[in-house]
Write a structure and sequence with these properties.
CATH topology of the largest domain in chain A: BirA Bifunctional Protein, domain 2
Largest interface: A-B, 53 and 53 residues
Distance between the termini of chain A: 22 Å
CATH superfamily of the largest domain in chain A: Bira Bifunctional Protein, Domain 2
Helix content of chain A: 25-40%
Shape of chain A: globular
Oligomer: homodimer
CATH architecture of the largest domain in chain A: 2-Layer Sandwich
Chain lengths: 578, 578
């Protein structure tokens, strides 16, 4: 491609509202343009990268035995009502009516459509298992679209769905996808981790892994072991202590209860937070018992964790088997318990009390006294309040022991979720009646898995990991072009002729080349080239008189004067070596 | 691909509501499944064909110098308001609101988005011309979706847009697309004609051609010359007589007016139609003057054509420069003229009268007398009523002289519109302010063209042209697989082993093969193979003992017993010969 003809404009400054580096760079380098909040046009360079990621995904899906189909974006609302999701999906589901006032949803995901399809097409175990996938535009009306392609409202996804006759089959289908995802993200040049994740609203039994590209901008926290392969989303991560508690018998409180003095109330006027308590009392946060009241569905409960720990709402929700959970507001707490904000505690509380394992181990705890401006000290769980509901109700903390090995501790990373594999089980097949006849002629429910990749999000994730102060540095496998060929002075006949010859030879070898044939100053050309981030660069300048060009890898940044033949060879080695 | 694993079910009967052959066959052969009216899932076989058409379109667009981008389906309503189309597009435009109650349209086309984009990106003549395209899902809420993929509500399109500095540039851009379209449809195996078409609601000055796949199910009529290359959509087609009139001076009526007897009123009780007149009076329809009253915008006019001709509303509309046109209802006509339905005529009519050239040539015309139950005979245009507004107001008729050559006559065909190239001019660039600075620094408006291909519709059009009583016959360039390899008895070790060897060798040669490894009766396998329509077939049966297989081209249907090596060679010749 000749750059003179390429529909490309670079920007010196990035628009003020672009927070993420990838968003800034993709705007500045002319890969994307915003049409509305969270809605983008992929410019020719951006489209090329997107297509390369698509092709990698397609190749690896095909290799894993998945079959491509294409389902519609417009989905009849009836399907979503049948699965029970129409009411609960909330405002993220974009809804519209057709001219006959029939309701439709713009698909954010396709469980309903695929399950109905397979229900209608397959009736015998002989035609299972099957894994189907599509690469398709999805819609999700994010409350706060941001970070460019990282959280958009219209985006490209690969979604796959497996159908098996039994759970062992699902395990195998899941493993195939899990492995394919590793190959895909490796080929895209991502630094990623597959982490255990919470099942979330999509529901279903069995395991789930998120594929996280490590990046500071990531909205998820990953807890990974310093020693073994353990890695989990913080929402799911547990610690060695909690893990051993959950397999052992429930604690009856600390073992050395005899040595603790009796509980004692003391005056703490206006001291409502852990921080204030630490400052005024002088004790450590790890000696406090933090109590928070939640409304879970119709139920009201108190959850107690150590003052230095964070409550994990998801864990509480799962423990209670609730659909919805939220912190109770101050008014509700006051009405139900008579206790003003900041002074609630487990001792004598009339609500059911859920106690985190680590809190249950405290011996000289400090807790709210359920009375304005008063706290207790020397609180001992099991002695001063009941310990009938213990569990892992907190976020793992950095430095906690790894739950999966004996040596490691947990270290935290930020991650961008670029993929997700999920054992759905029978959640959808049951509701939508996807049955098959087994070998003995008995009707059974299909066992499903679903597997997503945020194809457009991968672009942003890659840029978050591959850039420097001057711009993007694409991994060669998904770069818009492999080589940027830059004659410095296009009006110099010798330079342009040499550049043209190199261009033709590279094209003949199947290399993707962008020829900067613009009549611009060298500084402008190099600045643009750095920004755009094509991984290999050949500069044709005055030294072409002695047959020399400048060869550079964008990542290394080191320029080398070499002959044109050698430049050609290096390019071919780099392109074919991938 | 092994057929045992392929997500495919064929149907013996086609669903009752599928009218078009292509719709029936694509359902029966398992290429598509309906999700809602006009909304389909492409099953794996259908997805493969769709991808092949996509790739052909992409290759030819790239070869023609167009650059691919990807615009969003969700378009802010403001853009459509700015172009003035939001109000006039009607219920075919699917509209929705986001969670903040901002209005969006689901793009049926992208003139607004692309013009705004290019306006923002390009400001100098130096960066023009440019042609941009995308392959993308479009939405149009058809009043009556039907014929499967031929008239759907969600469909795949290629749309391209060119931007030039002047009209000569547009002509060149248009020609490049015109030629690319020929290559695309040839490669898809379509029998098509490029026909002159009416500019229609999309507006703009300059030419437009439709690419019509010839097929009886087609909703358009094409008038094509028996001699020269002339071909036009009936809405646009003219005849030799009309064409020569329009370039000469307007007629003052027939030349031999002296010999015609005076006008004479006669009683025609209850005779309201041309057919009834022909029967009761005994004259030919071509001697009648048919008069129809139209409301065009605020204007009411009468249009007169010969009794054997059909009025072309579009031609009348263009003549009047009207936005809207419709036949006046009986009540309106009665109120304005006092004449009951069936008896209106041009003689003494108080409305403006538009007379078609052919009608203006009549000498002994029969026309309504503007009085219930009476007609006139011996009506002579120019003598008995004014001929100040003559023009080509009728549809060309089959057998009319060709307007473009001296010998040919017009023949009619039915066609499916698979592509459309269109000189938009400045219609959108003016409204949306797409200006550039010319070489003298003066601000000018960009000159645009737009170019569409109904990618998914091509599938249906191809099937309408390529089938027989047993099923589809895909052209090899877009077939889901190139070879259908069928071992008759999969439990026969010799057969399966030979089939497996052939399969491996074909795959190694890059041939796309579907191996029917199902344990089914030969009859079932052949019936399915015929229905699915893979163009080349190799059957491995008992003769494999003597090294022979059966080779067949689906189109010819003739089976030949040949050696496996020869079968392999024939396949490679057929696949590479395309």
């Amino acid at each position: 491609m000749r750059q003179n003809q390429l529909m490309l404009s670079t920007l010196r400054e990035s628009p003020g509202d672009a927070e993420a580096i990838s968003h800034q760079l993709m705007l500045r380098a002319g890969y994307i343009r915003q049409v509305a909040a969270g809605i983008y046009t992929y410019m020719p360079l951006g489209r090329r990268v997107l297509r390369k990621v698509e092709e990698i995904v397609r190749e690896e899906m095909d290799r894993a035995g998945a079959q491509e189909l294409l389902m519609p974006a417009l989905q009849p609302a009836e399907l979503w009502k049948e699965s029970g999701r129409y009411g609960v999906y909330g405002p993220e589901l974009m809804r519209l009516q057709d001219r006959h006032e029939r309701e439709f949803a713009l698909g954010p995901t396709h469980e309903e459509v695929i399950t109905t399809l397979v229900r209608n097409e397959i009736s015998s175990y002989r035609r299972l298992p099957v894994t189907l996938y599509q690469i398709q535009t999805k819609f999700r009306d994010e409350r706060r679209p941001r970070f460019g392609l990282l959280r958009g409202r219209e985006f490209l996804m690969k979604d796959a769905y497996s159908f098996d006759t039994d759970w062992e089959g699902l395990d195998a289908s899941y493993q195939r996808m899990y492995k394919a995802y590793h190959r895909i993200f490796e080929r895209c040049g991502l630094n990623f981790r597959a982490v255990e994740a919470d099942a979330g609203a999509i529901g279903g039994e069995g395991g789930t892994h998120e594929f996280m590209a490590l990046a500071d901008i990531g909205e998820d926290t990953i807890a990974a072991c310093t020693c073994c392969g353990y890695a989990a989303n913080l929402e799911k991560a547990t610690s060695r202590a909690a893990a051993s508690e959950s397999v052992g018998s429930h604690t009856a409180g600390p073992s050395h209860s005899a040595s603790v003095p009796a509980i004692e109330k003391f005056h703490t006027p206006g001291i409502r937070t852990i921080d204030q308590l630490v400052q005024s009392v002088g004790a450590a946060a790890s000696d406090m018992l933090k109590t928070v009241v939640f409304v879970a569905d119709e139920q009201v409960v108190a959850v107690v964790v150590r003052g230095d720990h964070e409550i994990n709402e998801l864990k509480v929700k799962h423990y209670l088997g609730a659909e919805d959970i939220a912190i109770a507001d101050a008014e509700t707490v006051l009405r139900l318990t008579g206790v003003p904000t900041g002074f609630i505690g487990p001792v004598g509380l009339t609500l059911p009390v859920l106690v985190d394992y680590a809190a249950a181990e405290l011996t000289h705890g400090i807790a709210g006294a359920n009375e304005g401006d008063y706290h207790y000290r020397n609180v001992q769980p099991g002695r001063d309040f009941e310990l009938s509901r213990t569990g892992d109700f907190r976020n793992a903390a950095e430095g906690d022991g790894c739950p999966s090995c004996a040596e490691g501790t947990l270290q935290f990373y930020r991650g961008i979720e670029v993929g997700h594999v999920f054992k759905l089980g029978t959640k959808y097949s049951e509701k939508l009646g996807a049955q098959f006849l087994d070998s003995s002629g008995k009707s059974q429910t299909m066992i499903m898995g679903c597997y997503g990749i945020g194809v457009s999000r991968v672009l942003s994730a890659v840029v978050e990991q591959h850039y420097d102060a001057n711009g993007i540095i694409w991994p060669i496998g998904i770069a818009p072009y492999q080589v940027h060929l830059i004659p410095i002075a296009v009006k110099d006949e010798a330079q342009m002729q040499a550049a043209q010859q190199l261009y033709d030879r590279l094209l003949a070898e199947g290399v993707e080349v962008l020829l900067d044939d613009r009549d611009e100053r060298a500084g402008v050309k190099f600045k643009d080239a750095d920004l755009i981030g094509i991984p290999l660069r050949i500069v044709v300048g005055r030294d072409i008189a002695s047959g020399q060009v400048e060869y550079m890898e964008r990542r290394a940044g080191e320029k080398q004067a070499i002959g044109t033949e050698e430049a050609l060879e290096r390019v071919l080695a780099a392109v074919r070596g991938r």
